[in-house]
Amino acid sequence: MSHTFYIAMSYGIAGLISLCLIAWVWLDGRARRRELAQLEAAGIRRRSATSPAPEGGKA
Question: 53 in a domain, yes or no?
């Protein structure tokens, strides 16, 4: 085994792992957005969403 082969394999494996992590995060983000859309369609809102003030005047 030459040093060049070892270095090339190290870069290749690191690149492959990086691409796998990027794909995983991207696919997981799509799944979470889909889940949020389903929840919002069902009438469930996020706590951070603004809601109308109650009748008493204080939020």
Answer: no
- Rounded to whole angstroms, how far apart are CA atoms 59 and 39? 24
25 assigned to some structural domain: yes
In a domain, 5, yes or no: yes
Rounded to 5 degrees, what angle do the CA atoms 3, 8, 11 make? 125
* Dihedral, 13, 18, 20, 22 alpha carbons, nearest 10: -170
For 27-38, write each residue's pLDDT tens digit.
Answer: 999 999 999 999
Whether the predicted pLDDT of 14 surpasses 90: yes
